[in-house]
Amino acid sequence: MTDTTDKSARFDWEQRIGVLSDQRLTGIGALPAPRGLTADHGAGLVRLDWQPVEGALGYLVHRADHADGPFRPLDHLGGDVLAVPHPPYADTLVEPGRTYWYKVATWSDEGAGALSQTVSGTPAAGDGRPAAVTVSVDAATEPVPMPDVWRRMIGAEHFSLLVRDGPGPGGSDVAQEYGQALSIVRDEIGVRSVRAHGTFLPEMVRVRADGSFDFSGLDEVYDRFLAGGLRPVVELSFMPTELASDPQYTVFYYKAVVSTPKDWDHWGDLCRDLTVHLRERYGPDEVATWEFEVWNEANLQVFWNGTQDDYHRLYEVAARAVKSVDERIRVGGPSSAAAGWVGALLEYCRERDVPVDFVSTHTYGNAPLDFRPLTRSFAKATDKREPEILWTEWGVTPTHFHRVSDAAFAAPFVLRGMKSALASTDCLSYWVASDQFEELGWPPKLFHGGFGLLTVGNLRKPRFWALYLLSQLSGGRIPAVASGDGAEATVEALATRSEDGTTVDVLVWNGTLDQSKIDGATVLDRSVTISVSGLRPGMTYQVSSRRVDETHGNIQRVWDGFGGGDWPDASQWEALHAADTLPIEPLAQLTADADGAASVTITVPMPGIRFLRLAGR
Description:
- There is one protein chain.
- The protein is an alpha/beta fold.
- The longest helix has 19 residues, at 264-282.
């Protein structure tokens, strides 16, 4: 048995996610190859497009340096699943003037299918000016509600940090800052629930000598958490030491036990007794609104010492135990890494008539795949309600202490993923809210590449501002379609309109999945003309702007301007908090012409975000 908190095991863990992805993408699926593959030459990119294939969960782009190959899956360096959920796709991992050849395979739960026909593309070097993109917004279209998949859930470190005593990283008060971070994401982003590991950590649940359970530690933590107006996602993990077949099989700095149970009935007793206790303490109707998720990433050896069959048994015992108390409570899994095991769990539940209200999985460095073909197939085969699709972990990287997590690069990445998820998921939960996070040890300095949207000290990173601006879109969604160089692949947009038609909001971003461009690439900067039709003819609109890029909404740049270092002193903390804002910038007024049209042109660097509000007067 290896303690997975040692340094070498950490390295294996970080690498395993990418290896797992590659292994799963080598099979031959039943779906046909995509048709109509095209390659457009752009400044600093090759834009690929193709016809979607019914039943596909995603697509795997292959590239070669020669027409006759070899063709290999294109790795945009995200560290996780390589397949993308839909076209178009921009390959920015290129050299201008060099020709590349491409094929695309459909990806299903069985793996990658046959390759498409070959196309070639040669990226341009650009002429020193940002290439042009137009975003056409139709304000005359009746607005429709926009699913707020980013608000339903967010990730956080284990909830027992809410009662942690003693100083934390940089001398911080961990409990106070952790609680404040949860309040910030609630108030400024609108988050409604929080998922955290470790419901059964020893400080939360104690196993008595007679085998019964003491939930008093959990009560203290949940009381504090629920007082903040949020709901918990009850992740049924990890294994209490007394129940584990191998109590020395642990993960993380805090040595969570990730072993199979030695007594499966006792595991069921734990899940059932927990459910009974929560209903008695917080009310049956309240608990019926919570999700109960079984385990975390059992398809990684670092999180589970059993087999896939063992996980299915773990899931079934837990799900039946919870449902025996209250059928209304939503139970799901497999809570897997790299989008794995979803189809297998659904098939297991179908064969054995096991309850499954939602499927949950994780991915990083990419937009989430589309699992609707699997959930719809399950519903049709069982004549039951289609399970929800919850991505209970998602982020820009699976790697701890990676500088991309603090960079402006991650801000447009967040918006690309959220827009992609609007049609295909019920929840896309960013991992995590705060850098008060100890999985592999406490933060060694303020900007250390932590997973949090907020730093230690609760400064807002560019990724936070991306979700904040998404939450600022008011009214209902209206069409916003990009055309031009890199359109819908690097430059994308969302737009909304107020009910009375007097206000139009447009959120535009410019980003790439290619993490070799963490520090930006001027060849990918774009001049974006936002052309709005359907306005009131002759009406004047006050235009205001907010932006996130290397020099706006980037608190790390402010810290670097102070000379950097590990931790701020008192005066530097004061200055950092004063700078932790996203100012509103007034732009020139616009007047809609006789046809109700108006336009404004802005530069959006890569990486970059612009939020525009047109307020009628």
